[in-house]
Design goal:
Elements: E1 2-8, E2 18-23, E3 29-34, E4 41-45, E5 48-51, E6 59-63, H1 65-70, E7 80-83, E8 90-97, E9 104-105, E10 123-124, H2 126-137, H3 142-145
Antiparallel strand pairs: 1-8, 2-7, 3-6, 3-8, 4-5, 4-7, 9-10
The structure holds 2-oxoglutaric acid (AKG) and fe (ii) ion.
Fe (ii) ion (FE2) binds near residues 23 and 25.
Length: about 150
């Protein structure tokens, strides 16, 4: 598990600056503790951005790309971003649950059937794929795993 503290300083131009650009997490799951006062996280669904409301003391559990692969697409890893507040700084704490880089992952056999054919290849070192696709090519890393 990797843990990261995020600190988003205020910015007077939230119309042109994002805290985190749109992405889906490359994890199995991500545990997220959000700021108790300042919102910022948004999820993309049906061509719209939806705010993630503050729920004090709650951990937000986000499905990552590797859960999408393991579940043969039953779980979808959502696209999300962080917007910046013009006046207040924001904190978040993210714990990224990821397998060791030498472990191969693929859809669970029991979820691959005639009615639900296999959608993803076997992948290894998804963090490496994530880095190459997301940061270097600006593409969704899950595309690399699709059959
Ligand atoms: O700061 C947040 O609420 C989310 C950050 C995030 O999406 C990430 O670190 O992957
Ligand atoms: Fe994220």
């Amino acid at each position: 598990m990797d843990v990261r503290f995020n600190l988003y300083p205020p910015c007077s131009r939230p119309d042109v600056v994002l805290g985190v650009k749109p992405h889906a997490d490359g994890t199995i799951i991500t545990l997220l503790l959000q700021d108790k006062q300042v919102e910022g996280l948004q999820f993309f669904k049906d061509d719209q951005w939806f705010r993630s409301p503050i729920v004090p003391e709650a951990l937000l559990i986000n499905v990552g790309d590797q859960a999408e692969i393991l579940s043969n697409g039953k779980f979808k890893s959502p696209i999300h971003r962080v917007v910046i507040n013009p006046d207040k700084e924001r904190f978040s704490l993210a714990a990224f649950c990821i397998p060791e880089s030498d472990k191969e992952i693929e859809p669970f056999e029991s979820l691959v059937k005639e009615s639900t054919p296999r959608l993803y290849k076997k992948v290894k070192d998804y963090s490496g794929i994530f880095f190459e696709y997301h940061y270097q090519q600006g593409r969704r890393p899950i595309e690399a795993a699709k059959i």
